[in-house]
Design a protein that fits this description.
Number of domains: 1
Shape: globular
């Protein structure tokens, strides 16, 4: 039996987690960039060596079934490095100037986006957990227009508060997914003005998502981006983000893909499903091509969601 009540141990773990994030934000940004990246590469390699990344491996195996075990192991190592790179860059983001942000971002297909923003409109963006979406959001807030999005509430609460303050400090408006006012009406209001509304949608957090074909397998994705675009009569653009090696380190490439078509007939639910599938098709091509940039450490595919629910219920 533990010497301490579970709540005390949990609170102690939360305190360590919060302290770790605060050290990261204060220390990593002061390190030379190459040294910071090298440190996080080592953390990634150690994580994989100790058995971390099992869910990432399962997801990668689903989208890249042609890979043998050796190639899959190498891809997971690369993917974990990219995932840790996201945190390294996040810790350093608050001290970057607008020019430094611009130097770290290359953009493709932004002509249509700038046209809508220039006309006083808004754009809804369907994102996956690809590359560094916080760097993309910070760049967008500075170089495109206001950015409004939704963030999953993290545990412990103090960590969520740190990330909320961090993203707000980058110039983004953040609405919590849970624990506050329903986010959809707030997003609809934002869609009436000028700006970008990027939403991470390759994992359904609402249990009311849309089942799509993703890389040849059934998966559930969030209905929110398509529903918002449809309700506000705004264009819906799939957006992919990937890392790109630069002379001094790393940058990202943001690709704004063409807006998906709105079906001419069908119920609202059917239109939302069709538009979400169109986004999933674009995302799937990116994930196949740049798999290591897909930082998905949670179940996405229906087969894995079913197994996860059974495990949580204690059914074997």
């Amino acid at each position: 039996m533990s010497r301490f009540p579970g709540t005390v141990l949990s609170r102690a773990a939360d305190t360590v987690t919060v302290a770790g994030f605060r050290v990261g934000w204060s220390l990593i940004r002061r390190m030379p960039e190459r040294s910071a990246y090298a440190l996080f590469d080592r953390i990634a390699d150690l994580t994989v060596a100790r058995g971390g990344g099992a869910r990432m491996r399962a997801n990668y195996a689903t989208v890249r079934p042609e890979l043998d075990d050796t190639a899959l192991d190498a891809l997971v190592r690369e993917g974990m490095r990219a995932y840790m790179r996201y945190y390294c860059e996040a810790f350093r983001l608050p001290v970057l100037t607008p020019d430094e942000l611009a130097a770290r971002v290359r953009v493709e297909g932004d002509g249509a986006i700038r046209e809508v923003l220039g006309a006083g409109g808004s754009v809804v963006c369907f994102l996956g957990h690809l590359g560094n979406w916080d760097l993309a959001g910070a760049w967008g807030a500075v170089h495109l227009g206001p950015v409004t999005t939704v963030a999953e509430r993290l545990e412990p609460e103090e960590v969520f508060g740190e990330f909320l303050a961090f993203r707000t400090g980058l110039g983004m408006t953040i609405h919590p997914l849970t624990g506050g006012p329903p986010p959809f009406p707030l997003l609809r209001e934002a869609a009436k003005g000028v700006g970008l509304i990027p939403l991470l949608a390759d994992r359904d957090l609402s249990r009311d998502g849309v089942e799509v074909d993703f890389c040849g397998e059934p998966a559930r994705m969030a209905a929110g981006p398509a529903a918002l675009a449809l309700a506000g009569r705004r264009p819906l653009h799939p957006v992919s983000i990937r890392h790109e090696r630069r002379d001094a380190g790393w940058g990202i490439v943001i690709t704004f893909h063409e807006a998906v078509e709105v079906p001419g007939s069908g119920t609202t639910r059917q239109k939302v499903s069709a538009m979400t599938q169109s986004c999933a098709d674009v995302l799937g091509e990116t994930v196949r091509t740049h798999t290591a940039d897909w930082h998905m450490l949670q179940p996405v595919f229906t087969k894995d969601l079913d197994l996860d629910r059974l495990a949580r219920a204690g059914v074997t």
